[in-house]
Amino acid sequence: MRKKIVAGNWKMNLDYNEGLGVFSEIINMVKDEVTGAQEAIICSPFIHIHSLVQLAKGYHKVAVGAQNAHQAEAGAYTGETSARMIKSVGAAYVILGHSERRQYFGESNELLAKKTDTVLKHDLRPIFCIGETLQEREANQHFDVIKAQLAEGVFHLDAAQFAKLVLAYEPVWAIGTGVTATSAQAQEIHAFIRKEIAAQYGQEVADNTTILYGGSCTPKNAPELFAQPDIDGGLIGGASLKSRDFVDIIKAFN
Ligand code: PEP
Questions:
Q1: In testing the pocket of ligand 1, which one of 235, 241, 248, 249 has its CB within 8 Å of the most ligand atoms?
Q2: How far apart (Å, rounded) are the C-alpha atoms in residues 236 and 214?
Q3: Are the beta carbons of 131 and 146 closer than 8 angstroms?
Q4: Per-residue confidence (pLDDT) for residue 13, from 0 to 100
Q5: Which of 1, 4, 81, 176 is the most exposed place for a label (fewest CB within 10 A)?
C-alpha cells in the first residue's frame, strides 16, 4: 500500500528559533494525536535542517526535507546547496519543481530531470511538483502540461528509481491564493497522473506511488480532498507554518 504523507513547505519563512519552536510543537502533537501510519514531513529552509533532524530523532512519523538542491555535485556555484550536503545533515526528502522555482528561478523540466538524478544519487527522495497555470487550465491544456512535466522531468528514470519519488499535483492557480481545486478537479488530475505512471511503469508501480495535492489546503478542506481515491495526502504551504493547522490537516485522514 502506498504511504499517506502530509508535507509542509515553509518556503522562505520562520527564522531559526521560530522554526525550531513550530517543529517542536508539531512533533509533540503528532506523537500524541496522530494515530494512523501517516508520515509528516517538514521541508524547511536549509538553515533549520540539521537542528530539525536532531529534534525528530526517535519519532519515526516525522521527517525533514529541503526545498531545492543544485543539479551539480559540487563546485563554483556561489549561494547554492548540493544534494550531498543536504544528505549529510540527515534530511530525507527534497522538494523539486515547485511552481515558485519554475516561475521565479526559470527551472525547466530539463533542468529538473538533472536535479532529480542528483538527488536520487544521494539517496534522497524527491517530492516532485507538477501543475498547470490558470491560463493553461482555461485554455484546456492542463492534461498536456502535466503529461509533459512527467515525460520530461521524471519518466527517464527506471522503475526502481521512480519508486523513490513522491509526486505532488499543485495547480499554480491554487497556491497561496486561498482558491482550492475542488476535490473532483483534484481527483480527476490525480487519476490521470496515475494512469500516465501505469502506462510508463506498469500498474503496480502506479498503485504504489504517493501523489499529494497542494494548493490552499486547510484543516477545513483536507478531509474531502484526502477522501478521494487517488489523493494520498497534501503538500502544505501557508498552513504548515502553524503547528495546530498542520497537524489538524494530518488528522484529516482519521
Ligand atoms: C505550496 O507552496 O506548495 C502550497 C501548496 O502553498 P499553499 O498551501 O500556501 O497554497
A1: 235
A2: 6
A3: yes
A4: 98
A5: 1
Distance, CA of 148 to CA of 49 (rounded, Å) = 32
DSSP conformation class of 92: -
179 lines ligand 1 (CB under 6 A): no
Which DSSP string do the residues of 56-75 spell out, in sequence order?
Answer: HTT-TTEEEEES--BSSSSS
Half-sphere exposure of residue 153: CA atoms within 13 angstroms, side-chain side:
24
DSSP state of 47: H
Residue 232: CATH number of its domain: 3.20.20.70
Spatial separation of the C-alpha atoms in residues 150 and 215, rounded to whole Å = 19
* 50 catalytic residue (yes or no): no
Helices then strands, each counted (H, E), the chain: 12, 8
Q: Which residue CA neighbors atom 6 of ligand 1 most closely?
A: 237
Instruction: Round to whole Å and give the CA distance between 233 and 4.
Output: 6
Of 70, 98, 142, 190, which is the active-site residue? 98
Marked catalytic residue, from 39, 48, 170, 190: 170
Could you list the residue range(s) of the whole structural domain that residue 224 is in? 5-253
Q: How many domains does the chain have?
A: 1
Phi then psi for residue 15, to 5 deg, are -75, 180
Q: What Å distances lie between residue 95 and 36, 58, 100, 152, 252, CA to CA?
A: 24, 23, 11, 17, 23
Stretches in the chain below the pLDDT threshold 50: none
Predicted TM-score (pTM) of this structure: 0.97
> How far, in Å, from the CA of 166 to the mean position of ligand 1?
16
Does the active-site annotation cover 136?
Answer: no
